[in-house]
Request: fold
Amino acid sequence: MPDRVTMTDISKRFGANAALTSVSVAFQAGSVHALMGENGAGKSTLMKILAGVHRPDQGEILLDGVKITPAAPRDALDAGISTVFQEHSLLPNLTIAENMFLGREPMRHGIDHRRMEAETAAALAELGLRLDPRRLVSTLSIAERQFVEIAHGIKGNAKVLILDEPTAALNAADVEILNRNIRRLRDKGVAIIYISHRMEEIFALCDRVTVLKDGQWIATHDTADITPDRLIALMVGRPLQDLFPPRGQTTGAEILRLTDLRLTARSRPLSLTLNRGEIVALAGLEGQGQQLLARSLIGAHLPHGGTVAINGKVIPAPSIRSMQREGLGFVPEDRKEEGLFLGLSIAQNITMGLHARARDLAPARSYKAVVARIMAAMKVKGRAGAPVASLSGGNQQKVLLGRYLAAEVQLLVIEEPTRGVDVGAKSEIYALLRDFAAKGGAVLVLSRETLELIGLSDRIYVVHDATIMAEMQADQASEHKILEAALQGGRGADV
Amino acid sequence: MFDLMGRNSRQGMWAMPLGVAVVIGAVLSFGTAQFATAENLWNLVTQAMPLVITAIGQMLVVLVGGLDLSVGSVISFTTAILALDAPAWVLIPAVFVLAAGIGFINGFVVTRFRVHPIIVTLSTQYIVLGVTRILRPTSGGTVPEVVIAAVSGSLWGVPFAALWGLAVIALAWVLLYRARYGLHLFAIGGGIASGQTEAARNFGLKDRRTVLLAYVACSCFAALAGVFLAGRIVSGDPNVGLLVELDSITAVALGGTQLAGGIGSLHGTVIGAFVLALLANGMNLANVSPFVQTAVKGVILMAVVGLQSRKKMGL
Reply:
């Protein structure tokens, strides 16, 4: 296969940090090329250079053998290099069609909305989507937005398509639709560069894989010639015995009991128990009520019936504050939006939980010792005074966990514990959660990555249609069994 | 018309101030004999015109999350320049060149040095006001004949003021809804309002230039309002634009444009300006003291905008 893009000897510094050091890599037409590495390895920087967002300090880029120097995103787009960025990059107050054509709107006595809408509908239909192109992006779900971003990237006869973690917000069915489209584009001769932390996707989809570490090129292999273990070892720079810590040995007293809880007016009642020392997972297809269940537990959603009991005591009217008082902590999926204060320092984010419990006019202690202890225990890299926004995804997640550990919560509800977290930090976070449980805490975990739930937890509840369909021991569970349990009950069947 | 999913829902809640305007108009029609006369209504349009023009310019800046506090000074400055002793063919182009220069400075400092728009335009407000007072400490001088003629005549019973208004609205409409420029303003403002300041640039938009041009356009609209006022008062007046910047922001906000950016509309802004004009006109007819008028303006602003934010749409 001919080389579509050749990046040679690319270096880039941001201030004192070398983000990339003399990286050379070639991407072929008609092939899917995975770019892997821990967060901070330089994948995104390399792709932003190709996309014209950053300019390299040295090195050259050839596109079909011709040297290009994209100085702005526009230049790269015009050259046929399209990017779906990791951050949500659509404009919420514009329609789907306007987003698709922004910057290259067709004109016909003014902006030709009709043509934009017709072509957008066609582009969405190619992806198997039926969305009205006149809808504002702010009215779309996260998965729908992701597809619109992808449709935007594909449009305009891209020669090169860069996908930066495109599946982070997608469920299994949507991932399958996406993969089908990626293969279709590959067969049309597009060079696809695919960044993802999900190992299964890499091996199912990609032809080649390049590993970066600390801004340097480590290796490029055909995926047929390499195993997942070997790939992880290349990324973390050391062989990884096991991503997951051993399961818990003993379980203690019951800490949480949900009885006949009805999440929505129509859903069937569910019951659930959680003991000290346990990590329990909520599994199932995406959007089946797992999030709602977690939110009724923390007091952010009012269920339609049933009781919540903590340590055997029924909580009459669960609210966020009353549940906090009972020793419950919640780590939300969208840590940037719902969890962390990005502009504040690591120390302030960690002590937030302690301050929140104090009275409003109580003097604010600095809790220096607590912060130092937590940061050391969690191996957070960085100064206590550094703003959280400057940390990698893994370190951000640790800071958020640290807040609850500092507040000495008993029961931790955690959503997507390793979203946007690199492999090395993933295993550290798993170990921290296990350690928390071993010391007498209890964890309820939600994740889109079923393998993560199986590896991490002791017991699994399968959630479907806003109720619990099945309960199984994690060491006997498999993705197949969970899916079967979720779908077998089906709507209306009595269990 | 009232779809909640599509493009119309980023126009902001202009229907509410329209309702307010209709109610005020209806009350005045029944309550006073003088209101619903052709003479008074044309008078109302003429009185409203400087604010309509200024508010339209202000809206362009507000759409990208900015504010321009210098427009009042630009208006006074324009009247002072027009009252200088020089031929009309020099003065009239000169006021627009000068206004564009002020807008350029505003936009340049905001986009390149990332200084907050309030600080930047507050500074130019002082600077331009100072220069104006040096030029013309008290009101006086005479503006060119052609300027006076352009605002005081009428055509088939329609005063020139209304034609000015239509022309400005048509110009702004093309800029905002037909040209790419308007869509890019909305796009950049939407990015700013939702915290994705890089998003528009990733689409290949020249965001800094677009924002800078909004400040230039805003100043030029203010200069046009200044030319209009100069024709009405026939002389240069260093105080004629005083506090117009606040009225223009009031009109923009009343019309449903979100100060965070990305949501708003031309028609809303025009409606907002007319609500203010109706209030002033009506309360003058009803012999309400100007002090009470100011207080009522504040109450209406808080009530209308307060109700809007409860149903913030589009973002």
